[in-house]
Amino acid sequence: MNKKFMNEDFLLGNGPAVRLYHEYAEGMPIFDYHCHLPVKEIAEDREYDTITQIWLNGDHYKWRAMRSNGIPERYITGDAQDREKFGSWAQTVPYTIGNPLYHWTHLELKRYFGIEKLLSPSTADFVYETTREKLTGGNFSTQKILKESNVKVVCTTDDPVDSLEYHRVIAESGTLSIKVLPTFRPDKAVNFDNSGEFANYIRLLTEASGIHITDYESFLDALKNRHDFFHNAGCRISDHALERPVFREAAGVAIESTFKKVLSGKEISIEDAEKLKTAVLIELGRMDSRAGWTMQLHIGALRNNNSRMFKTLGPDTGFDSISDGEIAVPLSRFLDSLDKTDELPKTILYVLNPRDNYLVGTMIGNFQGGGIPGKIQFGSGWWFNDQKEGMEQQMNTLANLGLLSRFAGMLTDSRSFLSYPRHEYFRRVLCNLIGSWVEKGEAPEDYDLLGKMVKDISFNNAAGYFGIEL
Fold first, then answer.
1. Could you identify which of 240, 314, 356, 397 might form a hypothetical disulfide with 351, taking C-beta atoms 3.0 to 4.6 angstroms apart as the criterion?
2. Does 122 lie in the same domain as 224?
3. Using CA atoms, how far apart are residues 271 and 291, in angstroms rounded to an integer?
4. pLDDT tens, position by position, 152-198
């Protein structure tokens, strides 16, 4: 049976799915509780001259595909003109069938620009000119995109030393109804493996906090100072990127001694670095708990694999992959160390390796409680799992081992303002999954029950979970 590509029932393979999506999911707003959008561009309500600027710059998903298609780096991250770069992406798109990029590309062209033609070398000029006409027409700024996408909350990703000046500009302007809030991401504060980079970071942290860091205690005081600063700016979420969780306990005297070594620029052993990192992460978890924040742990990214390209382009340029380090024991002990004293905050666990789905699906059940529905969350399919199969695997795991109905749902995790149709993509996958259960007699055809479930996962659960006033 032939179906028109990406019609109104795209990804909806059964009658219940169609009804659940169109009657319950489709109109729900978006709570984007984790993304990498540049807040400066929101504050300045930036407009773009070309689709290359808003669509390709910074998008390492597309960059990886272009490299796989043999596109020279000059037309990806180099000095080629915008039209040339876009033409290289158009050349690549027909080869992405089967990759979520094919779906995302055409969803975004359709939803934001009304373009239903397939992107290819033969349509590249038409798409480039049509999008440029809309982009430069005065009605396509960052804030207008967010409003058009029905976004209610955006949580950006920010270092503790950030001044948050652009968050302040947005808050003080009073012209944007959308909440744009920071997220506390202290990865550089626990980078004890590189004494040179850490020493530079200490200088920045000292300047930002106004606290002269001379020992471990003053270091924690400086982090607490910035934690309070973020809280006053509306932040209610922290985030940590961990290739793998660490847990090595050490006495306070040993921690102090190790910290002073790092502070003085001396290299320390991997074991000592892990002890210090464990101690600091526990303290940060306690700060989150006392402030009523949610802690996110993104686990399993093996970053910057290509050293030659890392030296040329730096991080976050498309040379990361999935790690396979052991996570169960250190993750359990880390969570338990906070739970022992009833200082485990609400926590979201994301894993990049799908082999760890059932591990996390069972781990979250160990630490639920406190009268908080879904206190410990199994985070949405992340990064390489941010596609139909990965989403289905994550949700099936959560359904089998926990409560899918309490799931906080989808996040964008993107640097592009045109990525919000990924929420539509997710909701269609969600509705199709639940609808398939109805079709097989595994769930009741009760639309009051299932419609509420879909609405909750799409938006309501996140709105209630994070404690952010809308």
1. 356
2. no
3. 31
4. 999 999 999 999 999 999 999 999 999 999 999 999 999 998 878 89
